Structure formats: structure tokens, C-alpha cells
Amino acid sequence: MDRAVIVHQNFLRRLAENDLPDGPMPDPSIAPARLVEIYRSQVLSRQLDRTSRVMQSQGKGFYTIGSSGHEGMAAVAEALRPTDMAFLHYRDAAFQIQRSMQVPGQSPVWDMLMSFRTAKADPISGGRHKVLGSRALSIPPQTSTIASHLPKAVGAAYSVGLARRSAPEHQCLPDDSIVMCSFGDASSNHSTAQGAINTACWTSFQSVPMPLLFVCEDNGIGISVPTPRGWVAANFSNRPGLKYFTCNGLDMAETLTVSQAAADYVRRTRKPAFLHISTVRLYGHAGSDVEMTYRDKASIEASEANDPLLHSARILRDINVKSAAQSIEIYNEIEATCTRVSVEVMQHTALSTAAEVMESIIPPARSCTPSNGPSATRRTEVLGNDIKQMSDPQPMNRLIGWALSDLMLEYPEIIVAGEDVGRKGGVYGVTQKLQNRFGQDRVIDTLLDEQSILGLAIGMAHNGFVPVPEIQFLAYLHNAEDQLRGEAATLSFFSDGQYTNPMVLRIAGLGYQKGFGGHFHNDNSLAVLRDIPGIIIACPSNGADAAMMLRESVRLAREEQRVVVFVEPIALYPMRDLDEAGDGAWLTSYPAPDRRIPLGEIAVAGGGTDLAIVSYANGYYLSTQARKALTDREIDTRVIDMRWLAPLPAEAILEATKDCKNVLIVDECRRTGSQSEELMALFVEAGHRRVARVTAEDSFIATGPAYAATLPSTESIIAAATALVAS
Questions:
Q1: How many other β-carbons are positioned within 10 Å of the β-carbon of residue 424?
Q2: pTM for this structure?
Q3: Tens digits of per-residue pLDDT, 90-118?
């Protein structure tokens, strides 16, 4: 028999027999009405689990991972304010239901069943996922199964204190709010959770405000793997900077009392706390899970005997508020409501077309207060002597730094964060002087953890800031890529555009560093970024473009709420010369602060029709060198700088090459998974037949004299171009 049916029958039988588990009396200061309300939320959570299974059996519901056994989370919600942002574990339906009781006008039965149905009218995801979440309840949707939402909870908590000192235009969290995030005992072992908790402790240890409540729901098992008894307490009870609380999550009164104490501690001290709640898991991991294949019957029945609803009914009975029979009446009444509403919900249509599904990948624009920029006096005060040098030719790294300064002057909600970005000024000096100019609140030296750097940015963006985080080297992004793919890029998608986390992620990357660092400091693959829906990838080739593209990237984040990745070619940071040593031909002067290069605008050098070379970054630099030699060979050439790698400016590229006899793609990334593959497809599908490409080899990059052996070169470009034109 289905374990859900067994749990249901056991509950009714034991209440009918008044056979309820023993337990202590609740704190008499808790109003009985509060306990009744919590019980009703717990029952609704249970009945929604049961209803979702019925809907799935009829082909009208999907993904029935449930909250049964974790109903104690309703008491945690009761201990918090509805304005305390909550990043929830997927078993926290009871939390969302109880929070909905705190906000007028909510309809949790309807809302959650619409999500189970994946109906177009689902108020949180628009039918894209069975997901917890609500804008009105300050619950951003989460689909994480491995606690990948914890780093952004840290960032959101940090933003509360930051906003108290300098409020951003789009602030949404009250100054006295706290942030809560919940997760399972198995997820607490994931590197993402460990990193986030460590970051919170690291921050708190330095007396920096971190009003964050971690809630670990410990049911003793992760899918099929048991959590060692005592492991969670041993792991988290003595962390420096982290206050530990524990309670029996089966007892709603105790959970309420302890949760209130934990929340009060966090709100009062502005320090993080860890709330360890013991729970049970009922029905197995998810709807398709056959628990008997990995767990013995006695263990399953022991969990079922500890059904938290039985404990709650016992409490209501013992304080003479509701008899066992009356608790059954509530249970049956709520079951009838769920059944009635589900019949109507199942008539609602789900998404059916690609356009409908994709509609929320790109977030909506938001209204921002226009800015005329800082006054000349203020700009001179902050930038000082640098202003006098801006009309002189300069390398890229310096122009990016000036662009950041101008942007931070104009928009006080911009926050730069990353390892070494402050006092040191970054590995390549790009962020030099920023911390002196704008202070440690706006230029943050983070700990060495890429997941935490990106989580900080995502969380701050939840509270109206425009983060500009930095990853030191492109290869280091792989330590945290799911923060982009699984969190930042999916938020608008799963919230139907109601929640966004705009940012401009700066990454120093690509190859051609002369013998420095090997493959980790010369990584030449952008494939992990290019396949993430909705993000924008910018990659400049010279200093002036970099400054203007960075301004556009900030505009895209601030006004259009986009996630932008700004890839800065390390080898071009100091580049001065083009054809001969000392010619200074790759230096540019600083463009006026109001100049931008719009998303999708490419650059075209030359008007030759024999050959078009399409490239970007270092490839564009090398192709510009090659153009001179090709001209000497009477091959009339134009060179196109893509600038924007995602979304690919396809129409502009086709327009710029339509009158060219031959097209050569120069891609410094590895042959497999590179931009060149998309470009080859673009040209072939558009009818071009004379197309070739020069790419890097499918290899890592060596340290030492062979640093460029696997990469395109001026010579290889000339050879490929000559062969293509002659063929």
C-alpha cells in the first residue's frame, strides 16, 4: 500500500482512539489561538501533499516532492516577520502557508495547487515549475536540492546592513529585517552550504552585520543515505561567530519558542544563528521514490509513528483547545477544501509553446531615477589628477578602472566585490584607487571563495544594489558556475519576472599571457557561460570599447535587470603596440562618460570585399595585425569585432559580411564548444559557402615558451585567409 495512504489512515485511527504520543506541555505564554493556526497550516501542508499525488495520478500534476514530516516549519514562519526574506528548502510548504496567514489577501490553497498544476496562472512561476515562492510573502522561488541558495542568503543578509548605511533606490528589505534560509541535513554537507556558512561566520567574526538565520531541517536521511547520528550538531554547534539553537521539530510549541529566541537573537545582535530542527521524512524522498528498497520497514514505521500532526493534535488536546475529534474535523475540512479547489485547478491550462516557456527568461525592465552624473567639482574631487590623463592614450586596464570610478560616482548603488579588489586594487590593477575613493562598504575585499563572491552579488541584488563582482581568473569561475546557471540566470524564469538579481560579473580571462600561470591563468573557454539562457556576455578588444561596453553593461543590469558577464582579456590589459614595438597603436584615450556601445553593436574596420575576418578580443587584435599583411598580398580585407558574444549579434554580423566573398572566423577559444561553432552554423544557414575558421586547439595552455603554441597567431590567420581566398 502507498505509504501516504498508510500515514493518512494511521493519523485518523490514532486520533479516533485518542492514541497520541507523549510530550511536554507548551509554554503557557503562547496564545492557544496561535497554536491552532499553526496546526491548521500544518494540516493544509499535509493535505496539499496528498492532493498533489492525486493530481499526478490523473496526469494533472507533476513533481510531487512533498513536505510531510516537516510541518514544524509552520512554527518557524510564525516566529518571523513576513518582511524577513526567506530562501526555502523544498519541503517548506508549511512555512509558506503559515506566512500567508500573516499577510492579508493571500490564498495559499489556490496558489500552491496552481503551482502543482504548473498552470499558466500559477502566481509565482507562471507554470514553469512546481515551486515554493511568493512576491507578497518575500519568498523568492527556489528549486535547489543542494543548498545552492545559501550563498545568496548570505548576500541578502549582508545587504541589510549595507542598505542601512546607504539605501539603494530599489531597496526592498526593511532596515530591521533578518534573512532566513532553510535546507536539509544532507545538503548541509554540500560545499555550497559549507562555504556560505563559513562566509557568514567569517563576516560575523569581524563584527560586520550579518542578520541571517540558517535553519537545518534534520530528518536523518538524504534521499537514501543516512546522516550519522549527532553529525549536524557536532558540525555546527561550535562554529566561531555562529550561535547554535536546537529544537524538536515535531513539537510545534517548542519549535515556536526556540525559533522565536533564534530570530530575536539575530535581529538584536545582527549576527548569524544556526537553528537545528529535528524532523521526520514521510512518504520517502519524492513521489517516485520506493523507500522500502533502501530503508527497513521498522525505520519507516518509526518515522510514521512520529507524525508531527499527531504531536500537534496532542498539544491542542492537552491545553484543552481542541479535542482529538475536533482535530480530525479540521483535518477533514481542509481535505475537502483541497479536493474542491483541485478540481477547479485541474481545468486550468498549462504552458504549451516555446514562446510561453521562454517569456520570463529575460527579466522585465524597471523604472530608474534618471541621472545627470556627478558635478564637475565632485568628479574632480574624487578622480583628481587622473582626469588630466584621460585625453592621453592609455592601456585597457586603466580605462576600465576609470569607467568603474565614473559609474560608481553616478550610481551609489553599485558595489564592487571580490578577492583583492580593494586594498591591492586587483591582480592586474584594474580596481586600484577604488576603495580609497569610495570606501570599504562599496569596494569589498571578500574571502577566497568564488561561490560566496557570486552569492554575495546575487543576494545584494535582491535588495536593490547593482553588484559588480569580480572573479580573478576565468578558470576560477568553475568553482562557482552553478551560482550563475542554477541561481542568477533562473530567478526571473522561475518567478515569472517577479524576482531578479541584476549584476555585472567581471572576469579576467582568455589566453596569450606570456608564460604565466598555465591553464588556470590562461583559460580560453567560454562554453560554460554561452549555454546559460538569458545572460549577456561582453568581451572588449581595446580600452575605449571596454569603457563604453562596461557602461552599457551597468545600464543593462540597472535598468533592464540583466545578468551580464564582462570578460576582460588579460593579455590586452597592458597592450600598447600593434605592428611595431613602440607604435602605441593599441592605446586609446578615455571616451566621455556619457558614451556607450549598445548591446549588439559590432565594430567594422576596413571595407574590403575579398575577405571578412570575424573575431573578438585577442583574436581581433591578431586579425588587425594580419590585415596589413593580407593587404600587401592584395587581399582586400575587413575585420569585424563581435564585442558581444551572447546573445550573438547575428543580424549585425550577417549585414557586415553580406558583400564579402570569403569569411574567416578567428576564435581564440578551443575548437570544441567555441563561438566559432555557432558562427559557422550562422553563415552556412544564411547561405555562405566560403567560410573557414581558425581556432585554438582542444588543449589546455602550457606554461613557459609554448604558452601560445595551441592558440591562433597572426601567422596562422594569414595562412588560413590566404588559403581560403585562393581555394
A1: 13
A2: 0.95
A3: 999 999 999 999 999 999 999 999 999 99
